[in-house]
Design brief:
Number of helices: 10
Shape: elongated
Number of strands: 7
Helix content: 25-40%
Length: 511
């Protein structure tokens, strides 16, 4: 809160105030939060004053001395500070919209986070000033001195910097879209990550500037640039050109851009292959991806950079758009082909599954019949007759003799059955293995070599095959081997006349 005696002195005019200041150099006037709006403070000595949160809206401060004054969060909207001295003053978070600082001295002044929208700084000295994150859109810096000024993360959209000195200035991550920098001096300036869409750099000086990840577009004007070399990385890394200097117009060619609009979304795979092919076609144009902008939901803008003449870039853009559409069509065609193939395969699976299920039903009936009747004659089971065999009523003779004569073949068949059973579901595989072990033991040991006992094993194996006939492709081979084994053991199988097949089953399509 301002001190009353200080306010009273202030209101007595510049002469009395300045005399008091001169006689009391060690007193720091406290004018904090004072309402000084519209007050005439021309030629006042306000150096080092505490003007925190003071209201100086529309105040007249021509040629005022505000050196090292503290105006944190002060209001200076429409204030007139022409030819004033604000060196090393603090204006952090101050509101100075549309104020006038023409020919003012703001050397080393702290204006960070302040609102300076549409403020006038013509011919002002802002060298080494701090404007970090300041709002400076539409501000006018015509012919101003901003040497080594810090404009980090500042909003400079539509600002005017014509003929301004921005040498060694730090504009890292600043927004300069639509700004005007005609004839500006940006020697050794740090322009890393600036947004310069539609920015006018006509006839500006960019020698030694750092352009790491700067964002420009086809609307950015780079005509008649004066530039010997630039850096694409901070700390003077990645110099372009690597040796020598840019020739006439070479800088402009190097940083030409192409904007590609995708209003309804983008197929990233199609774009990737299109751009890859385009780079091969134009390997001398140094094409690179500069930026990807998501505008409204599905709308994208992809910005490419290249070192080619504007008319050639237009051709490159047309080629890329054509390549992209071609890739889109190829991907769509491939997709439809794959979908069709999958549908065909699914249809074949369904057909085969239906046949296998029918075979399963018939085979179960066969097994039941075999369990109830004896065996006389023999036949082979395959995809054309599976499901229609049944056991006969004949007697088994010369059983042991047949085993001896066919011992090697019987062993091979049992081994084959073991291999085929590996494809069965776990529970059925284990069950089949148990019966095969028992069958091999019955055959190898004379005391267990009884026809009815072995027949039971044969029927059990066919039963297992019947329960999975519509699921596993190798069941038919397994069943045929079981029947071949029965034949070698002189336990033949015959067709039942009442169950002759009415149609043939197709070969399995599951293999």
């Amino acid at each position: 809160m301002a001190k009353k005696e200080h306010l009273d002195l202030l209101k007595q005019g510049a002469d009395i105030w300045n005399l008091w200041r001169k006689q009391n150099p060690n007193i720091i006037p406290d004018l904090s939060a004072a309402n000084l709006s519209g007050m005439d403070l021309r030629n006042y000595d306000l150096s080092k004053c505490n003007l925190k949160e003071a209201n100086l809206t529309q105040a007249k401060l021509w040629k005022a001395n505000l050196k090292e004054a503290n105006l944190t969060r002060a209001k200076l909207c429409f204030a007139e500070l022409t030819h004033s001295d604000l060196s090393s003053a603090i204006f952090t978070q101050a509101n100075m919209r549309m104020a006038e600082f023409e020919n003012a001295v703001l050397k080393k002044t702290d204006l960070s986070h302040s609102d300076l929208w549409n403020t006038k700084f013509k011919f002002a000295d802002l060298s080494q000033a701090i404007l970090t994150k300041a709002e400076l859109s539409y501000a006018d810096f015509w012919n101003a001195n901003l040497y080594e000024t810090i404009l980090y993360n500042a909003n400079l959209t539509n600002a005017k910097f014509s003929y301004a000195n921005l040498g060694e200035a730090i504009l890292y991550n600043a927004n300069l879209c639509e700004a005007i920098l005609c004839n500006a001096d940006l020697t050794n300036a740090n322009l890393s990550r600036i947004q310069a869409l539609g920015t006018d750099f006509t006839a500006s000086v960019l020698t030694g500037a750092c352009l790491e990840d700067w964002s420009i577009n086809s609307e950015t004007k780079l005509d008649n640039i004066s530039c010997k070399y630039v850096y694409l990385k901070t700390d003077k890394q990645d110099r372009i050109p690597k040796v020598g200097e840019f020739g006439t117009g070479e800088f402009t060619r190097w940083f030409q851009t192409i904007d590609l609009n995708f209003p309804t979304g983008i197929d990233w795979s199609a774009f990737y292959f299109s751009f890859k092919e385009l780079k091969v076609r134009h390997k001398n144009e140094n094409l690179s991806l500069q930026a990807i902008e998501n505008k409204n939901g599905s709308e994208f803008v992809i910005r490419l950079e290249g070192s080619a003449e504007a008319d050639k870039l237009a051709v490159i853009k047309s080629q890329l758009e054509a390549l992209y559409q071609t890739k889109i069509q190829e991907i769509e065609t491939q997709y439809q082909t794959e979908i069709k193939a999958k549908k065909t395969l699914i249809s074949k699976f369904k057909t085969d599954l239906e046949y296998q299920r029918q075979a399963n039903t018939n085979l179960l009936e066969i097994v039941k019949t075999m369990a109830e009747r004896g065996t006389t004659n023999k036949t082979e089971i395959n995809a054309n007759n599976v499901g229609f065999i049944q056991s006969g009523n004949g007697t088994v003779s010369n059983f042991s003799q047949n085993i001896g004569q066919n011992s090697d073949e019987i062993t091979k068949i049992i081994s084959s059955l073991r291999d085929l059973a590996q494809e069965f579901p776990d529970s059925k595989r284990e069950e089949a293995m148990v019966h095969l072990d028992d069958l091999q033991e019955d055959i190898s040991k004379p005391e267990k070599r009884k026809p009815e006992r072995i027949k039971t094993r044969i029927v059990a194996l066919l039963t297992i095959a019947g329960t999975i006939a519509g699921v596993i492709a190798g069941v038919t081979d397994f069943s045929n081997n079981v029947l071949e084994l029965a034949n070698k053991l002189n336990i033949p199988i015959e067709f039942s006349q009442s169950q002759q097949p009415t149609q043939q089953l197709p070969p399995s399509t599951l293999n």
